[in-house]
Amino acid sequence: MLTAALAAALAAGGLTATAPATAAPHGPASGPGTRSDARDDARSVVDWSAAMTQSTMARYTPTSIGGWSYPVGLYLFGQYQVYRRTHDPKLLAYIRSYVDRFVDGSGGIGQSFNSLDSMQTGRLLVILHHETGQDRYRIAAKKIRDRLSTYPRTADGGFWHADTSSRAHQLWADGVYMVNPFLVEYGKEFGDSASAGDEAAAQLAVYGRHLQVAGGLLKHAYDESRTAAWADKSTGLAPEHWCRAIGWYAMASVGVLDALPAAHPRRAELLTYLRRLAGALERYQDPRSGRWFQVVDQGARPDDWTETSCSSMFTYALDRAVRQGYIDPRYEAVAQRGYRGVLARISLGADGRTELTDISVGTNVGDYAYYVARTRATNDFHGLGAFLIMNEQLGADR
Predict the structure, then answer these.
(1) Contact 220, 238 (CB under 8 A)
(2) How many distinct helices (H) and strands (E) make up the chain?
(3) pTM (2 decimals)?
(4) 181: how many CB neighbours lie within 10 A of its CB?
(5) What are the tens digits of pLDDT across the range 331-345?
C-alpha cells in the first residue's frame, strides 16, 4: 500500500506519514544526516503519480469531477500517462466514464468549440479511440478538427483565444496547449499528420513571434487590435510574464516538435523559440526552492511567490527537451532542481491522500497585482495534471 510504504520510509527517518513534505524555501541548505535528508530519502521511494491518481479518484467520481473543461482534461491526460506505465485498468475506465458523459453512441458531442480552452479535453477522445477502437470517439474528435477550418484567426493566421467579442483578435500563450497537442495527436491517430502538424507548427510560430520578447520569456497575451484594457497601445502585448501561460507554451513546444518530421520547414524556428525560453527559465529559476515565480521575472519582490503548476510544466519541458536533443544538456540540472522543488510541495494528509499546494487558480490577463493576489489553491486540477505529466517524464527511470 502506498501510504504504508511512505509511513515506513518516513519512520526510518524519525518522521510520520503526515509530516509536511515542504522544505523552508529561504532556509539554509541541509547537511548529511539531517531530518530533511531523511524526508527526501523517504519521498524518493513513493510513486507519487499512483498516489495522486488514487487520491483524486477517491475524492471525485467521473460524474462529480466536473464538466467538460480544460483543467479536468489536463488532469485526466496526466492520469492516462500513469495508466500507460502501470496498466491499472481503473485509471482508463475512469477516463472513459468521464468522457462518455459527453459523447453519445453515435459520436455526438454537445460542445460548440468556440474557444481554444474547450478543445483541450479533445485529447481524451483521441486516446479513447486508440484504446478502444470505437468510431464514436473519432467522430467526436473530428468535430474539433472541422471547427478549426472556420475558427477565427488573426491576420497572420493565429487562432483567437475564443470566438467572442471579449477575446476577438487576441492570442493567449495558454491557447497553444489547448489545441496544438490535440492536433498532432489527432493527426497521428487518424492519418492526418502532415496537415495537422503543419497547422500546429504554424500556430506555435505565430504565437512565438508575437509573445516572445528580448531575454526569452513570453508575455501572457497579445491583442492584434490593441483595444483590450491590458494591451500596450504600441505592441499589443500584455504587461506581465505570467508563469503558467509560459508553461503552456513550453509544453506545447516539445509536444509539437516530437511529432514533426526532422526536415519540417518550421522546425528551426520553433527550436529557436524553445532555446531562448530555456535560457530565460534557467536565469529566473529561484535558486533557493528550485521553483519558478508566479510572475516569472519579479521574484525579488516580497509578495511574488513560487507556483507549483508552472514549475511542473517548466521541469517537464526542460527535461523532455534535453532528452530529445532540442536544448543543451546543461538544462537537465535546471530540470532536476525544479523536480526537487515541486516534490517539496506534495505530501500526504491525515486521510492518507495526496496534497499538492501553491497552485494558482484559473487566471485572466492582468497586471502584477492581479497575478500575485490569485488564490494559492491545494489540489487544483491545473497543478495535479501538470504534476502527473512532469512526474511520469522525470520519474520514468525509477
Answers:
(1) yes
(2) 15, 8
(3) 0.91
(4) 25
(5) 999 999 999 999 999
Q: Identify whether the C-beta of residue 383 lies closer than 8 Å to the C-beta of residue 307.
A: no
Q: Write the CA distances from 191 to 76, 184, 260, integer angstroms.
A: 24, 10, 14
Mean pLDDT of the 38-58 span = 81
Three cell numbers, residue 53: 491518481
**By three-state DSSP, how is residue 138 classified?**
helix
Q: What is the mean pLDDT of residues 278-299?
A: 98
pLDDT at residue 31 in the model: 37
Task: Supply the DSSP string of 85-136, one letter for each residue.
Answer: HH--HHHHHHHHHHHTTTB-TTS-B-----BSGGGGGGHHHHHHHHHH--HH
Q: Contact, 161 vs 172, CB < 8 A? A: yes
pLDDT number for residue 334: 98
Band (45; pLDDT cuts 50, 70, 90): confident
Q: 144 near 182, Cβ under 8 Å?
A: yes
Strands 292-293 and 354-356: unpaired
367-374 mean pLDDT:
98
Separation of alpha carbons 253 and 380, rounded Å = 24
* pLDDT, mean over the chain: 91
Name the DSSP letter for residue 59. Answer: H
C-alpha span between 88 and 65 (Å, rounded): 20
Q: Are the C-beta atoms of 107 and 125 separated by less than 8 Å?
A: no
Distances (CA, A) of 394 to 49, 140, 141, 316: 11, 32, 30, 7
* Cα separations in angstroms, 54 against 82, 140, 395, 396: 11, 28, 17, 19
Task: Read off the pLDDT of residues 306-318 as tens digits, 9 standing for 90 and up.
Answer: 999 999 999 999 9
Q: Encode pLDDT of 201-248 as tens digits.
A: 999 999 999 999 999 999 999 999 999 999 999 999 999 999 999 999
Residue type, 97: S
Return the number of other C-beta atoms located less than 10 Å from residue 319's C-beta: 22
Q: Which amino acid is at 81?
A: Q
Sign of the dihedral through C-alpha 258, 263, 268, 269:
negative
pLDDT, position 22: 34
Residues 71-104, buried b or exposed e (16+ Cβ, 10 A)?
Answer: bbbbbbbbbbbbbeeeeeeebbebbbebbeebbe
In this structure, the dihedral spanned by the alpha carbons of residues 80, 83, 84 and 89, taken in order and rounded to 10 degrees, is -120
